[in-house]
Amino acid sequence: MGNKDDQKICQPSQGVHIVLPDYYSPEDMGLLDPDTSDGRVIFFLPWQKVTLAGTTDVACEVTDKPSPSENEIQFILSEVRNYLHQDVDVRRGDVLSAWCGIRPLVMDPNKSDTQSIARNHIIEISDNNLITIAGTQSIARYHIIEISENNLITIAGGKWTTYRHMAEETVDKAIDVCNLKTTSGCRTKGLMLDGAHGWSPTLFIRLVQDFGLENEVAKHLASTYGDKAFKVAKLATLTGKRWPVSGKRLHEEFPYLEAEVRYAVREYACRAVDILARRTRLAFCNVHAAEEALPRIIEIMTEELKWSKSRQQAEMEHAKQFLRRNGIRFRCWYLKCSNQLY
Predict the structure, then answer these.
(1) Residue 183 contacts by C-beta under 8 Å, 6 or more apart in sequence?
(2) What is the pLDDT of residues 24-63, one digit of tens each?
(3) Rounded-to-integer distance, Cα 291 and Cα 323, Å
(4) Residue pLDDT, tens place only, 242-285
(5) What is the Rg, in whole angstroms, of the alpha carbon atoms belonging to the chain?
(6) What is the rounded CA–CA span in Å between residue 307 and residue 83?
(7) HEC string of 89-154?
(8) What is the pTM assigned to this prediction?
């Protein structure tokens, strides 16, 4: 932005993750290998009652609907086989979900070789004091801060897990380069997010005792919403059973509650996909369970938002299109091509 003749610094990279049943990993232990057969990183980790495995690393073009390819899924499965006992049959049909994301990797403008691409972030400052923030296997994984002749600050790369660090470095650099006056130091370290103030490791016990929730459900609510879990629990309906007293699940295999749909709508969730993929992780954990829960999600959202029949149909189709990108069509492809039941 500071100089139209400057070289391009951002290199989008596509990464695919797949989800496998929980028996592919121990409950409290994962594995990461930074040196696979072609130099990419592979990992599989216990996550949300399933096993998360990945990842690929391929240069790509930016699109708002990235989709995993069958070759990428097969690569991950092939690598996973190297870490399991030979008696374990790693099957394509075990893939519960697959999705793809785009990483904003960057090339360090101060370096000329292929080792200059970063996974973390870069800061650059142009001549006119404009500050910019932005972020595959041969690309550097750390963030870079670049200051141009006109003091444009560019920060590129990075990850969600380092966003506070990125922001702190960018602001500190702007203060230094532009001689800005401050009234206090950085406050991001230790700043609590909403729901953290009243959280404790034993908060879930109060949810069990006060609302008659299952242990698994109570732990999920406490870890997801913090002290806001009580607001969700108050929306939970009675089960009609001796135990649990309240808390109807969206799907019997996962601890997500129908009450979470109502809470999410009142917290500005607008579409069924918001529930499946953003307020819960159901679409990423098991795309087939997500499809099974979809009608009830739309039914609850209709009660809350007064949707018409046409809007309900539109939401159903929109959500199914999203789920197809997350793996439904891959399962169908496998059944058709292999004629194998599993």
Answers:
(1) none
(2) 998 888 888 887 777 778 898 999 999 999 888 788 888 8
(3) 7
(4) 999 999 999 999 999 999 999 999 999 999 999 999 999 999 99
(5) 23
(6) 49
(7) CCCHHHCCEEEEEEEEEEECCCCCCHHHEECCCEEEEECCCCEEEECCCCCCCCCEEEECCCEEEE
(8) 0.82
**What distance in Å separates the CA atoms of residue 64 and residue 322, rounded to the nearest whole number?**
12
Instruction: Give 128's pLDDT tier (boundaries 50, 70, 90).
Output: low
Tell me the two tokens of residue 30.
Answer: 């994962």
User: What does DSSP say about strands 151-156 and 131-134: parallel, antiparallel, or unpaired?
Assistant: parallel
Q: Is the confidence at residue 165, as pLDDT, over 60?
A: yes
Question: What pLDDT sits at residue 2?
Answer: 64
Give Dmax (Cα) for the chain. Answer: 71
Give which of 174, 90, 69, 74 is closest to 131, Cα–Cα: 174
Task: Using the structure block, give the residue that is written with the tokens 């966003």.
Answer: 163
152 vs 238: CA distance, rounded Å? 58
Instruction: Kindly give the residue spans of alpha helices, DSSP state H, lying in 147-193.
Output: 163-178
